[in-house]
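Progress against Task 2.4 (sequence-to-structure conversion) is shown through the following example record, which the project officer requested during the mid-term review.
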Amino acid sequence: MKALPKDFLYRRNREKWIMWLILGFMAFLWGLPLFAAIARGFAFNGVQNFIDVMFNDIGGISLGRTYINTLVIALMHAFFVVVVSALAGYGFYIFEFRLKTVAYFVVLVFLAVPATSILVPLFFITRELGLRDNYLAVALPEAALTLPFGVLLVRNFAEEIPRSLIEAAAIDGAGHPRIWREIFLPICKPALINIGALSMMWSSQDFLFPSLFFSSPEMTTAAQAVLRFREYLGATPDDIGRYNASLVLLAVPALLIVVFGLRFITNGLTSGGVKE
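Structure tokens generated for the chain above:
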């Protein structure tokens, strides 16, 4: 075995410290707007700015209501994506049919479809279905755009499932519903939790679809409220402090989803990546 250079450990420690310095500097740059908003949120009236925004409506918009709207849409989005991705991933893994590869690639092509390209048809479809100011008007288009990624993730994860396990269950008399429920779902749980967490995170940050389909102040989401609060706050020094306080509080749902979902996202992306 070739001996390690004498300065090997020194170089490793130096590289580690350089990496930490770079990551720390990037984290500082990304966190600087948030730190600035927090500092300006205490301007003039201190904590009272946060209390006023939390417990008083601003232009008919309640901060608590924006939290509820954001959470409901995120949960619906995640539910649709997880269920359909699990069913589609199972179908692409289990069944053999003509043009299977073509169908899979057609699904993947929709990963490249931008949301802006389907705004006009979505607007007319939503109007005809009477879904304006309805949670489904936002949750369904979000789910449709996320589904290709969900199918890709679950299908690739399912490739790690031994075929012998599925065949043994079929020999024992288990049908597809039971195999999907009792074998496929438990094994693919990391991937499904991953796509669910990502769906909630992406939904909580969506500004485009809520702005297009919601007109009632009661349906305002946290991402929308950032702009709408600007229309009512900012004219006076007191309002500027309250506006920055509102920015900090409106970021809470997305931050919580990221903080609590990061572990599942990381585990879901790495699980199944190596065969044992």
